Protein 1
Amino acid sequence: MKLFFKISSFYFFYFTLVAIYIIFMPKILKNLGYSSFEIGFIFSLGPLMRFLLPFLFLKKIQLTKKVFYVCLLLALFAAITFYFTIQNFYYFIFPNILLGISFGIILPFVETYALGYLKKERYGKSRLYGSLGFMLCSLILARELTTYDIGLHYFLVSAFFVALFGFLIALHDENTRVSNVQISEPFRFKKVLFLWIGLFLMQMSMGFFYNFFTIYETDHGITLKTVSYLWTFSIIWEIIIFYFQTPIFKRFDLLTIIKITVFMTVVRWLLLYLFPYSITVSYISQALHAFSFALNHTAAISYLYASYENKKLSSQFYYGISFGLGGFAGALLAGYLYGDNIFLYAALIAILSLIFISFQKEETIVLKQNF
């Protein structure tokens, strides 16, 4: 079984799992009687764990296969525990913490090897299978989700296949051997400090979207089925960009691409704020996900990959600071501020992100990547 297939399959089921979690779980929790603040708090736990974990690996722990295997089992155990805890807010905190810990290790581990083995030429073509899994889940589960336990069944099955293909990737000795290579360069945040701040703020604004887009749209009269189509539409554009992004990276340097994608994100949030009842505008804003996530993600992770000698740690901190701390702050703040102005606040945060990234000076790395 080729590593490309294993990595692509992992992405497919991992982001199927993510789709269930961010598209349908907020609505499930709301139907079970959770308040907006409680929903925001629950969805802030995972990002918080992803933020804290890299600091342990900075000096105390090594990212070995054994740690990776343990985290695969933790994710599976958390999915099982959902069945017994979801009815109680306080009990439900525990499996969400476990899930955040496992996700903080699993995805950076696989991403590092995906970039190292597949290189930039094939990374996007493998990563798009994650988008495909996300899209199919949003379509299928919108029709099947008649009771909350159906969502939990899908979640458990996806977690099982994430663990399976994660295990198979780690067994690929030649390309996934975790070596003890000595890193001569210390890891310094100040090397690209303004970019780190900008990435944090960018994902903070995305936290508003991931955790409350479904609720926001349904509160404005759009059906859950239509919302699933909106999610699907965004993923279609995400897949297109992942597949055809090479010419863009050949023409523009990475820092310029990051700035463009953040600006397009500002436009996206303003559209949702100004036209909350318009399905047409919602589709237009979802098309901009190609910039907000797909292009921004590839440019950001590639910039950091090239900037730091310690590739694994840069990947961990990328997810920890942006999706972790940014997602935590975004989920918590969105739960507190939720209302008609939620995407106006998201737009203001994205503008701050753009300002900080504009202060970032170009590094001595090759910014025009050869894909």
Protein 2
Amino acid sequence: MMKHARSFVVPTVSLLQRRNTLADWTFYDVGALSRPEFDWLASQRNEEGSILVVLPGGGAGEVCIRKHVDHEAMIATPGDLVRHFAIAGVGSSDVGAAALARTLANHLNEPVGAIVAGYGMADIVQEALGGWFFFGAANRAQAVRDRFGTWVSKPRRGGFRANEGERASIIARCSRDTRTLLRLLYDDGREIKTLLGHSKGCLSIAFAFNQLRDLQGPDALTPFRNLKIITAGAVVALPDELQRVYQYLGGIDWFGALNSIPGTAHIRVPYSWHHLNTEIPLHMNLSEVLLGRYDPV
């Protein structure tokens, strides 16, 4: 039995909220969360674009997670700047976002900001059609433009720090989770060191950086040359200026392959499907991925 299966019968968690955690159970290693964390997250209102700051560990009786409803709330909170972030995929709620971030936080032994990508099962159909497949199509079009040198618009020159109008134009093109990521990229004094995406989260990361490059030119990506980007469950087209990119796809992950870019360098994880839950067979073991246990194809 999964570690927190009993949470589905806790009276304080509504039927809708339990349904919203179903995709999280399927795709993410929710056993990395403590029982109090799971119950607290399952009772939260899932808001796309909100940020969960997830600390490593998570003691049995502790809630080592802080929630910020948006980017503005996060930067208004005193404390050290978070430098590692994760974005989960289609159908994930606060639970899935936190579980993905906890795996990365435990690996780095540092706090990780989880950008909430959706509302759980309540909007999985809408996300699949309007998010997963939209971003997949956009990323495939980007790959074609990159390979054949055709651009939708002439890139702007003049560096990364766009004026407020240009920032608003870029941000307005994106979903709420991608908007949050772009606002974090623009933060003064914040050097983001790690970005982890799973499933649709990979496509959100790619969309954000491709928007920056296409609208502001390659110089916009200069601050991110040392940023480590890890994608799991989708192989995406990212700008060549991003030099530390590691992409992973399960050997039997046909779902992730549907929105992956053929011919793009990646690392194949044998006998793995799309999910990261280590208690379900044929999972991708994200901890092993982060340790670099697999060789490039």
